[in-house]
Automatic annotation (TrEMBL):
The keyword Oxidoreductase does not apply. It comes from Cryptococcus amylolentus CBS 6273. The keyword Amino-acid biosynthesis does not apply. It comes from the Eukaryota. Keywords: Nucleus, rRNA processing. GO terms for cellular component: nucleus; preribosome, small subunit precursor. Residues 337-347 have a biased composition (Acidic residues). Its main location: nucleus. Belongs to the RRP1 family. This is Ribosomal RNA-processing protein 1.
């Protein structure tokens, strides 16, 4: 009787070889010939779309974490046009190509499309967190741009999924998990990365909500999208991270919603620090958001502001919040006119 074949071992060996073969695609993505770049993108999309399945049409299985890490390390460093180039247009084109891959992944079974894209997104953030401190000052701007592109395309991915609750939660989990870019448990995660995300989050969301193909979709659940940052605001042990989140994300969105409201908070009721700097108006966020996850109707600015404040209050009330952060959030909640119902729950 023939010995049984070791399919698991064979699968891992094949996967290892496939990943190694895929790494040169990073160089091809930066090729001067557009045809070569297009072939590289198509090859990478096909590779990620297949996952670790042995045969076409088999059940989709994401690459193992270590294999996804190898793939992203290759993409991160082996694209010399991105790593070495000082030409902004080349950098921008490559950053766009790398980020748009997220929307091109297409397993044979359509129901696997989002899980496959999510696995690739998780691989990106793991690579960014892992390699961030090794990026020198002269190259940092191009990786700031790459992270901005990925934030933007993530919102486009969620819009394509019609902002479904479980899809938003899955993306939030990628961002918040231990070792994620907006996590609070792993002190090895660079604070500058979380700060950069808080700087660009609203701007990129506003851009996406301005797209014609997105405005026709159901409204985005604003408070749910802010959940990773809301929890970080309450639980970060670092004062500078809390301050940056307030100044670059929460104060601007609360101000925008107040200004768009028919009953804005009076200037005299706002702390002096918030009136010295003119805040941006995120018009598309205001117009195309809902206060409820899965909500089909667009909410009023008052309702949106209430949902954001409620999320902040609940995060502060959680046992994982630090006491200094809790006091600061409660203070903001009171100044911004939080709901009395939430006030009754404050301990």
């Amino acid at each position: 009787m023939p010995a049984p074949s070791n399919r698991k071992g064979k699968s891992r060996a094949t996967e290892e070889e496939t990943v190694q073969a895929a790494l040169p695609l990073g160089k091809q993505l930066a090729h001067t010939d557009k045809k070569v770049r297009d072939r590289a993108i198509a090859g990478l999309v096909a590779f990620v779309s297949q996952g670790s399945g042995e045969e076409e049409g088999s059940k989709y299985v994401p690459l193992e974490d270590k294999e996804m890490a190898k793939l992203w390390k290759g993409l991160f460093y082996c694209a010399p046009g991105f790593w070495m180039s000082d030409k902004p247009l080349v950098q921008q084109a490559l950053a766009t190509s790398l980020s748009d891959l997220l929307l091109l992944i297409a397993p044979s079974n359509p129901s696997d499309t989002f899980p496959a894209a999510l696995a690739f997104l998780a691989g990106f953030w793991q690579a960014i967190v892992r390699e961030w401190t090794g990026i020198d000052r002269l190259r940092m701007d191009k990786y700031y741009m790459l992270t901005r592109k990925y934030v933007n395309v993530t919102f486009r991915l969620l819009a394509r999924e019609q902002w479904k609750e479980e899809k938003v939660a899955a993306v939030n989990d990628v961002l918040m998990k231990k070792g994620g870019p907006v996590g609070w448990e792993d002190r090895s995660v660079p604070e500058s990365l979380a700060n950069h995300l808080s700087d660009i989050y609203l701007e990129e969301l506003d851009k996406v909500l301005a797209l014609p193909e997105v405005t026709s979709q159901p409204p985005c659940p604003l408070a749910a999208l802010l959940t990773p940052h809301t929890i970080l605001l309450a639980r970060t042990p670092t004062k500078t991270v809390h301050t940056r989140l307030m100044s670059s994300l929460f104060t601007p969105i609360l101000t925008s919603l107040s200004l768009a409201s028919s009953t804005p908070v009076a200037d005299s009721e706002r702390p002096a620090k918030r009136t010295k700097k003119e805040e941006p108006m995120y018009a598309h966020i205001v117009m195309h958001s809902t206060a409820k996850v899965g909500g089909k109707e667009r909410s009023t600015p008052e309702e949106l502001k209430g949902s954001v404040l409620r999320g902040m209050f609940n995060a502060a009330a959680h046992g994982g919040a630090t006491e200094p952060n809790r006091r600061k959030i409660y203070k903001v909640w009171r100044e911004e006119g939080g709901d009395d119902d939430d006030d009754d729950d404050e301990e």
